[in-house]
Amino acid sequence: MASFVALFLLCSFFAAQLCNATDTITRNNLLRDGETLVSSGGNYALGFFSPGNSKQRYVGIWYNKVQEQTVVWVANRDNPVRNSSSGILKIAERGNLAIYNASSTNPVWSTNASLPGSKYIKPTLIYMLLDTGNLVLCDEDNMADFLWQSFDYPTDTHLPGMKIGMNLKLGTSWSLRSWKSPDDPSTGDFSYEMSGAGSVEMFIKKGSQKIWRSGKWNGQGWNGVPGLRANGIMNFSVASNPNEIYYIYSFHNTSVFTKAVLDNLGFIRRTTWAENTKRWNILRSYPDDACDNYGRCGSFGRCNPSYYPSCSCLPGFKFKSTNEGDALEGTQICVRKRELLCGKGDGFLKLENMKLPDTSNIRVDMSLSIKECEIQCRNNCSCTAYSSAYVDGSGCVAWFDDLNDVRDFPEWGQDLFVRVDAIELGKYC
Ligand SMILES: *[C@@H]1O[C@H](CO)[C@@H](O)[C@H](O)[C@H]1NC(C)=O
Ligand SMILES: *[C@@H]1O[C@H](CO)[C@@H](O)[C@H](O)[C@H]1NC(C)=O
Ligand SMILES: *[C@@H]1O[C@H](CO)[C@@H](O)[C@H](O)[C@H]1NC(C)=O
Ligand SMILES: *[C@@H]1O[C@H](CO)[C@@H](O)[C@H](O)[C@H]1NC(C)=O
Ligand SMILES: *[C@@H]1O[C@H](CO)[C@@H](O)[C@H](O)[C@H]1NC(C)=O
Ligand SMILES: *[C@@H]1O[C@H](CO)[C@@H](O)[C@H](O)[C@H]1NC(C)=O
């Protein structure tokens, strides 16, 4: 009885915040600055916030159970409500979700779902904050079908179940864009996206400049990211069909919060929340070492972080200049030692445990064995290297022209077979 009374008092005290906490916005309710939606299991909250020292108001989603406010999604990142606390979030024309400030009838921000034509709002349309952190628009008559979802518009955070990749049907992509600064969630310089060409690979880019790449998808993980494939606590997968190709992940213990964030300095950090220490623990952070910086040793270069200088050339290549300063700065260019005479005694040298070259210019054939892969590469004089497509030895990937961003990758790398001239081949046989 006593606890019932206590609960009752608590409820009347926090009435607006706690006991009436709802996970939906309908045609008949709206969300004012200061109020929050809370997902049904209590994992996530949605409301207005100001990051860091900012006075601007944004609508975002954060962890409801994590004390230090950790925002995972921002609706109006480039269109804040200025310095007031009079923002309103509600369903607007045609069922789009819109943010208004006090003084205007035009929204500061709005979703742009392709909803049926008229301005009329179907009464059964609702926005619901799910316990996965996804804000979805659905029709109460058909809850399984999302007409719009925040997971399709990532900010800087990749949550479990969220796709990063390409919607081939619409010609759009799912990618992360960094915040400008910890005080400013507006669109920053860095992106984290899947490569458009050839194979499946993740890139961190600054504008169009590549900063880091994950290495090729190898069936279980990324060729250049250690441990993940053997790490039993997480499940990474790539799925592709004619409409889309994407990368998702999950944590086997679904009660652990985990996320990958592209920060404003261009680092991807994968963290998990530790309830006992009340901290985000870093599992992985990229770029990691000097050899992780994209293209560090140039075309046909080879980077090994445990050597100094770390750059050398792939077999059959040498530095164009012998200037030591260039070597230390890694500004040397690798050129062929001798002309490659195709079909005149040339062949392939095996390099073990490598992060395979940039996959922008490759051909993949999953039906070929490694032996057939070699034959195909040998028979095409512009083929410079080949490898198994997957870490289990299946499939064939062949490179044409330059080999870029190759590094030694002890324990986690794959075998790379590089085409060399007859004399180079003779040195090793
Ligand atoms: C909000 O902005 C108005 C107009 O720019 C300004 O006059 C006012 O001082 C600001 N209020 C605060 C609390 O910063
Ligand atoms: C309110 O929003 C309108 C439309 O975006 C904008 O023109 C106006 O400056 C905003 N006022 C404030 C105080 O943010
Ligand atoms: C909204 O979507 C329509 C059609 O999908 C497009 O033509 C229009 O430019 C979009 N508007 C905004 C503001 O993104
Ligand atoms: C990993 O995730 C994929 C896609 O969701 C799923 O098909 C697969 O069964 C999962 N594997 C494990 C071991 O949980
Ligand atoms: C899952 O994580 C929760 C929270 O950290 C922990 O209490 C629980 O023991 C974990 N379950 C398993 C099966 O590891
Ligand atoms: C070699 O491969 C390239 C790239 O796939 C292709 O364009 C070219 O036609 C091939 N050449 C021969 C002789 O098969």
From TrEMBL:
One of its GO terms (biological process) is recognition of pollen. Keywords: Disulfide bond, EGF-like domain, Signal. Residues 1-21 form the signal peptide. This is non-specific serine/threonine protein kinase. Its EC number is 2.7.11.1. Residues 287-323 form the EGF-like domain. GO terms for molecular function: protein serine/threonine kinase activity. Residues 22-150 form the Bulb-type lectin domain. Residues 342-421 form the Apple domain. SMART domains: B_lectin, PAN_AP. It comes from Stephania yunnanensis. PROSITE patterns: BULB_LECTIN, EGF_3, PAN. It catalyses: L-threonyl-[protein] + ATP = O-phospho-L-threonyl-[protein] + ADP + H(+); L-seryl-[protein] + ATP = O-phospho-L-seryl-[protein] + ADP + H(+). Involved in sporophytic self-incompatibility system (the inability of flowering plants to achieve self-fertilization).
